[in-house]
Write a structure and sequence with these properties.
By secondary structure, the chain is mostly helical. It contains 18 helices and no strands.
Length: 235
């Protein structure tokens, strides 16, 4: 049967077709069935239970991300997917939340096994959950890539800018970033972090409120250099 016919079958016809042919379906036919708008959880389950069909990577991938696939089968199948397909599915809102949580757990468990290049590529497009795990990656290139991620949130960067785990190099990059360095909460956190290079911290002072400058000036952890800079502003 032509693939276009399979894709456009009505539900009753599709159910009958799969029931009669699941044991003999080819890869492209199984994919056509899964592309049919009338596919049901029962049909997806029949395909997912076929070891012959799920031996095809394309079928596993389509089943794992399909809303109609019973979640027990989808969660099992995500363990047999490639890293970058998992990344894509983790940010696809059409994938059920239960399946995305299973994917997140897989990504978090295996992120430290990836190469630097893979972590850099992941940082550019990952979801918030993985972004938090990559935030303190020892490779500066990973953090640099993370700053370009459209899913990154201000609150996550404020947390980094306030953390003693942040390196001077990360804080300098954040201070120089054209998108994020203009956020007030980030500016203030950068000035308050003793690890921020002093030139980067001083460059943010003129953007802070006088009340915040006084607060930072009175903090014992503020360096003498920054105190002198703040005193010039307060005059």
């Amino acid at each position: 049967m032509a693939l276009n016919q399979i894709k456009s079958m009505p539900r009753e016809g599709l159910e009958a077709f799969v029931a009669d042919n699941v044991a003999a379906l080819f890869e492209d036919e199984a994919l056509a069935v899964l592309e049919n708008a009338h596919v049901t959880p029962q049909i997806c389950q029949q395909i997912a239970r076929s070891a012959r069909l799920t031996a095809f990577y394309s079928v596993r991938l389509r089943l794992a991300g399909h809303r109609q696939t019973p979640q027990a089968h989808a969660v099992k199948l995500v363990h047999y997917l490639y890293w970058f397909d998992l990344l894509r599915l983790s940010t696809d809102v059409k994938v059920p939340p239960t399946v995305r949580r299973a994917i997140d757990q897989l990504l978090l468990t295996n992120i430290n096994k990836r190469t630097v290049g893979e972590r850099v590529a992941s940082a550019r497009r990952c979801n918030v959950t993985l972004a938090k795990a990559l935030m303190f990656d020892p490779e500066l290139a990973v953090f640099e890539a993370l700053l370009t991620n459209s899913r990154l949130r201000e609150e996550d960067l404020v947390s980094l800018a306030s953390s003693p785990r942040a390196t001077p190099e990360q804080l300098r990059l954040l201070s120089d970033d054209r998108k994020w360095s203009y956020r007030y909460a980030i500016r203030k956190a950068l000035v308050q972090n003793p690890s921020t290079p002093r030139a980067a911290a001083a460059s943010q002072l003129r953007h802070l409120r006088r009340s915040d400058l006084r607060e930072i000036h009175g903090n014992p952890s503020t360096s003498t250099y920054l105190r002198r800079c703040i005193e010039r502003f307060l005059r």
